Give the backbone structure.
Amino acid sequence: MARNSKRKSVKNKQKQERSWTWSGVGRRAGAIGAAALVIGALGGAVLGYAPLKERVGALRADPLVVKFEWPPLAGHKRAGDVSPPATWLPEGERWRLEQAVRATVSPDPFDLESLDRARATLLATGWFANELELQRRPGGVIDVRGVWRTPAAVVRWEGADRLVSRDGRLLRLTYPPGEAGSLRIITGTWAGPPPSERGGLDYGATWLGGDVQAAIKLLETIRATSAWPHVSGVDVSAYLNRGRLAIITRDGARLVWGASPGEAAPGEQPDDVKLARLTTLIDDPAWINAGRPNADLYTPYVLIDETAVREQR
């Protein structure tokens, strides 16, 4: 009896071991199969994402509507608050900028690379500082916002008046001589407009030599004075070799200012003295009656060109 009982115990134990072994295998196989399904699903999702993205992008693409935040005129907070926009940027240049965006940006709402290319294209026009942002909006709208460079004057070079910003950078507008409206003219520059390494001109680059920047500083100094309406421009031909700027009036008089405002020069009067002399001379009947002769404003005393006075008499 004891032997039979022992045999039954051994058989039951073997049966339990076989049952545990097969149930464990089944569970492992189920787990492996589930993992394979998950991996397959993920792989299919990854492989199918790009085509799906393209299909969705094509379905959701709307015709592009380019909206610039144009630089406003003085007295206007936003140029686009009125129609046509209250901006100093000419209509033709606005159209060119809009076309540059349309030609570069794709209607695919997922396409970020074309926005980057459009941004680089706009920066190359010279109109913007680096603070330039392009954003997609619903309905295919492309918003363009940035910090605009403001025109300060034109530089006359080789029969054309070329626009420059307040920090002396070349901008993408050129006028026939004398047709730049109220913009003052800078003449006699040491260098021409900055060239591009790819050929042509490098818009947005600084005009080399420092004389253009000095002239702009002088124009900003006298802008708010009563002399401003009488000023035609600044001649910088003697700036690099002698350190002197000359104001040119609308009547053709040459009033030598001297060093650029803020620059100390031996023997020259301070800027406030020069400015007072300029505003006084411009309205002086004796100077006007003498034919508005040339004068030096930087010397200890205002020096009038007596030769010009005698010729007028």
Remarks:
- Residues 17-23, 34-39 have pLDDT under 50 and may be disordered.
